[in-house]
Every structure is written in structure tokens, then in C-alpha cells.
Amino acid sequence: MAAKPSALALKVLAECPVTKARACEMKLPHATVLTPVFMPVGTQGSMKGLVPEQLKELDCRIILGNTYHLGHRPGPELIRKAGGLHEFMKWDRALLTDSGGFQMVSLLKLAEITEEGVRFQSPHDGSMMLLTPERSIEIQNDIGADIIMQLDDVVASTVTGPRVEEAMHRTIRWLDRCISAHKRPHEQNLFPLSKVVSTRTYVGSVQESW
């Protein structure tokens, strides 16, 4: 049986000999994206004040959506019935979805973090949502983005010490669960975050995560 094609092909176009910074070409299922790239944020599946045609006129190749917010509204069931987020928002270029982990910081007062996952209280209607690594991937599989992210244990940029180390180890454990839950590996790229967790504050933890 022939191997299925990869959902990502990366080509390094240039590399800085001093900083090792790279310019790359990413071939994704819906678009070829040059990096570094500015990625417009369409948190809930749309860009405020812009339509897809205008983004194409600006040569935008990729948009970011958010799993937590899309999981609440319009919800994965509606997105799945529409044929995925590309069809839902009439965008035929690349999409990336964040796992929902950032809401551990932005909605910290409404979140409870355990080994199982993150339990959020909706800021819209007060309903509860348990976002586990498995549920995050399930929602992202329904959304159908070209690049999906593992659920990570996110800490604020001001946090240091034991909490950062706890977050690093939990993120690595959650990565294993995300990989096991991913049902569309040949259509969607799962990007791990264990290698970059806590770079903002705690270099030692990053080195250990490698």
C-alpha cells in the first residue's frame, strides 16, 4: 500500500548564519505559506470588518481560529455539518487553530486546571465546558484546519518557579494524549508545544523539555 502524502512539506529558503533564523515555504493542504508570516486572527471563524475576498486581495494565505471560542459558538456540530470551517466561512486557503490553551490565562478567573484538562465557565452564558486534550483535538478535527495545536498548560508571562515546571511536564503528558486522539494526521498537521512551553519566562524548563 502506498504511503499517504504528508499534510505538510517544509522547504528552507534562507537561513541567517548568525541567529539561525529561517525563511521557509510551507506547503499545506489549502495553501502554500511563506514564513515568517503575519497571521490575521479570526477567533470565531470570521475576520471583523473584512470578508474573505478582501483578505485574498491582500494575499493573505492563512488565518487563525480559536478552538475554545469555536467550540462554544457556533459549536463543532454546526461546523461539521457545514463541511468544516473552510466551508463555514467560505475560505479556501489555509487555517490554523489554537488549542484553546491560551484561555487558561485570558480567562483564568473562569478556569480550573487539573490533570484531566481545563474546566471553563463560559463568559457568555455561564455554562461549563471541560476541555481535555482529547476534546481539543476532536473539536479541531471537526473544524478541519490545516494546522492544529496540542492543548498545553499555559502560564502567564509573569509566572516563574514550580508552576512553570509543572506546566512543562503536564504539557508533555498532554501531547501524548493529543497524538492518540488525532484522527486526521494525513489531512491536518498537529503541532506540539512541549518544545516551546514557557520560553517567555523560564529558559531552564525549555532546555529540560528537549
From TrEMBL:
Q: Which InterPro entries match?
A: TGT-like_sf (IPR036511), tRNA_ribo_trans-like (IPR002616)
Q: Do you know which Pfam families this protein is assigned to? A: TGT
Residue ranges occupied by any tRNA-guanine(15) transglycosylase-like domain in the UniProt entry: 19-192
Alphabetically, the GO molecular function entries are:
tRNA-guanosine(34) queuine transglycosylase activity
Which GO CC terms are listed, alphabetically? cytosol
State the UniProt keywords alphabetically. Zinc
**BP-aspect Gene Ontology terms:** tRNA modification
Q: Which Gene3D superfamilies match?
A: Queuine tRNA-ribosyltransferase-like (3.20.20.105)
Which PANTHER family does the entry mention?
QUEUINE TRNA-RIBOSYLTRANSFERASE CATALYTIC SUBUNIT 1
Q: What is this protein called?
A: tRNA-guanine(15) transglycosylase-like domain-containing protein
